[in-house]
């Protein structure tokens, strides 16, 4: 593939959600069995949100809250895979191609590595890119901070885009 180096863009995304009783734990589009789930207006998929912000950030297209306001009833309980697919569509409409995405989830528990491949497949499918171009990692914070105390989870992502 040929491209102008000046057309390469990088984006960074970061998101946090609190853990709450009576909520499903959805991460990377996977419904993970756990005693609590992430709280939010949508399904609170912290990883999908961080990746959407990385993708939108690289295209200078604002952020997830601009596209999907958290006071809009249309997004109550929304499937974040649908939101991520829409974010990818927005940047594509602006003339960008998503080349590569990497990410890390900070969660003290549960163990997330058994779900990594399904998350990568779901995220790649939503963005319309090969699974090889989507990285997902997880870390505890060694019991430090809000993630380490089990109060919530965070996710960070980077995205590399090229303007065609
Ligand atoms: N929720 C998590 C957290 C971590 N992992 C995996 O464990 C490895 C070691 O984690 P440390 O925080 O002790 O460095 C990490 O590299 C992940 O592979 C996990 O699956 N789920
Ligand atoms: C995803 C949206 C959708 O209304 O709501 P939340 O699930 O609260 O998630 P957040 O990361 O706060 O991003 C804002 C919104 O775009």
List the helices and strands and how they pair.
Elements: E1 8-20, E2 25-27, E3 30-32, E4 37-38, H1 46-58, H2 64-67, H3 80-93, E5 96-106, H4 116-127, E6 137-139, H5 145-148, E7 152-163
Parallel strand pairs: 5-6
Antiparallel strand pairs: 1-4, 1-7, 2-3, 5-7
Helix pairs in contact: 1-3, 3-4
The structure holds the ligand Nc1ccn([C@@H]2O[C@H](COP(=O)(O)O)[C@@H](O)[C@H]2O)c(=O)n1 and 2C-methyl-D-erythritol 2,4-cyclodiphosphate.
Residues 107, 111-113, 138-140 line the site of the ligand Nc1ccn([C@@H]2O[C@H](COP(=O)(O)O)[C@@H](O)[C@H]2O)c(=O)n1.
Ligand list: ligand L45E5XJ5, 2C-methyl-D-erythritol 2,4-cyclodiphosphate
CATH architecture: 2-Layer Sandwich
> Largest sheet, described in full?
5 strands, mixed
Strand order of the largest sheet: 4-1-7-5-6
Number of helical regions: 5
Number of strands: 7
Kindly estimate the percentage of residues that lie in beta strands according to DSSP.
25-35%
Number of discrete domains: 1
Q: SSE order in H/E notation? A: EEEEHHHEHEHE
Q: Which secondary-structure class do the elements indicate?
A: alpha+beta
Shape assignment: globular
Helical proportion, percent range: 25-40%
């Amino acid at each position: 593939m040929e491209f102008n180096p000046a057309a390469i863009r990088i984006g960074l995304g970061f998101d946090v959600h609190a853990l709450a009783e009576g909520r499903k734990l959805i991460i990377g589009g996977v419904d993970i069995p756990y005693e609590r789930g992430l709280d939010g207006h949508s399904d609170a998929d912290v990883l999908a949100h961080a990746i959407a912000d990385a993708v939108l950030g690289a295209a200078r297209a604002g952020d997830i809250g601009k596209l999907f306001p958290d006071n809009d009833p249309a997004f109550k309980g929304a499937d974040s895979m649908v939101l991520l697919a829409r974010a990818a569509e927005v940047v594509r409409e602006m003339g960008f191609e998503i080349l590569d995405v990497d990410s890390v989830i900070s969660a003290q528990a549960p163990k997330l590595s058994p779900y990594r491949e399904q998350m990568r497949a779901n995220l790649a499918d939503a963005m319309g890119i090969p699974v090889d171009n989507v990285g997902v990692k997880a870390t505890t914070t060694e019991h430090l901070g809000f993630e380490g105390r089990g109060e919530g989870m965070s996710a960070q992502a980077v995205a590399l885009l090229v303007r065609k």
